[in-house]
Design goal:
The protein has 344 residues and is an alpha/beta fold. It has helices at 40-47, 97-100, 141-144, 147-159, 176-186, 203-210, 224-231, 250-256, 278-282, 295-306, 324-332; strands at residues 2-6, 14-18, 28-37, 58-59, 63-71, 83-86, 89-91, 111-112, 124-128, 132-134, 168-172, 192-197, 216-218, 237-242, 257-265, 286-289, 316-320, 338-342.
């Protein structure tokens, strides 16, 4: 079968390769991939700018939906033909303090699809049955392939930030996680949920409007700090969410968050900080990191998606698997918020 393979740590070490079709082992199922999203982490691995260990060569792709094609020995509760989405924790130890308390996203031995083990940018992917969730009948496979980034946003906003009605919320980033964090924040009836993007984000700005983002400020053109103070009580934002893959974004976050407010950082950024963190202390601000998700996050998000609470279709653009380069390029050039590959 054809697969998009990241074969070395050097930049641009990704290609379409012919590899053997996998077979499910005990406790696993074989999923026929019907749609797989391109994530910012895939782009980081493509450019060699990632900060995590990769087991080369590896098939990319961890945002996917499909149909069960075969069952491994001992798998119960699932049937061939079931429509499924899959969590990203392909391997966990199951015995550490985090696994035993349901926080397996933090397992020290956790391996994810697309870097630790083969992912879903292929016709088939082998997955443990424990990561499966049923895809509601009223959702398409393309919807299902967006469940994972929705879960990233839900974990960051709903589970770790816990906004309150009437809060002033600012989200940095017009990518998929930024737009999904904004939609999650709006579920809590905030005073205002502001999206901060760049004037160079191109089509993403129109897509942001189509999913309900308003107001939209451009950090390279608008006075973001002044606007935030004018629309609130002058003290700043209750919650600021950093969904940008750059460490430098934390600096404006610190400027606009109110005393005793919260910054939730969900965007990766390996660069060292070139500014003081003293405002974090002086303003008594909570800085919360957010990584991945767990079982309950997925069930909550699938319910939200099934109930039509999230606007997803305008964010995605579909490509055949063979056109993976064009799909990557569309995201890098801001022509798409979420490129999605459809294996043949």
């Amino acid at each position: 079968m054809k697969a998009v393979v990241n074969y070395a740590p050097e930049p641009c070490s990704v290609e379409l390769r012919e590899i053997a079709e996998p077979a499910p082992r005990a406790g696993e199922v074989l999923v026929r991939v019907r749609a797989v999203g391109v994530c910012g982490s895939d782009l980081h691995q493509y450019h060699g700018t990632h900060s995590w260990k990769v087991n080369y060569p590896v098939v990319l792709g961890h945002e996917f939906a499909g149909v069960i094609e075969a069952l491994g020995e001992g798998v119960e509760g699932w049937q061939i033909g079931d429509r499924v989405v899959c969590e990203t924790a392909a391997f966990i130890c199951e015995w550490c303090a985090y696994c035993r308390t349901g926080r397996y996203n933090l397992c020290p031995q956790r391996l994810g699809f697309g870097y630790g083990t083969h992912g879903a940018m292929a016709r088939y992917v082998r997955v443990p049955a424990r990561v499966l969730h049923r895809l509601p009948n009223n959702l398409t496979f393309e919807d299902g392939a967006m469940a994972e980034p929705c879960c990233v946003a839900a974990h960051a906003v709903i589970e770790l930030s816990r906004p309150r009605p009437g809060d002033l919320i600012v989200v940095f980033g017009s990518g998929p996680i930024g737009l999904l964090c904004l939609q999650m924040a709006r579920l809590f009836s905030p005073h205002m949920a502001i999206l901060v993007a760049l004037s160079t984000d191109g089509e993403r700005l129109q897509i942001a409007e189509s999913v309900g983002a308003a107001p939209i400020l451009c950090a390279d053109r608008d006075d973001v700090e002044g606007f935030v103070r004018r629309v609130g009580d002058g003290l700043g934002a209750d919650l600021v969410i950093d969904a940008v893959g750059s460490s430098a974004v934390l600096e404006p976050c610190l400027r606009i968050v109110r005393p005793d407010g919260q910054i939730t950082k969900v965007g990766w950024g390996p660069e060292p900080l070139g500014f003081s963190l003293d405002p974090l202390v002086g303003k008594n601000v909570r800085l919360q990191g957010s990584f991945s998700h767990t079982w309950g996050t997925w069930e909550r998000v699938l319910n939200l998606m099934s109930e039509g609470k999230l606007v997803l279709a305008p964010m995605r653009r579909l490509f055949p698997l063979a056109e993976w380069r064009a799909a990557f390029h569309a995201m890098e050039t801001r022509q798409a918020v979420k490129s999605m590959l459809i294996p043949e």
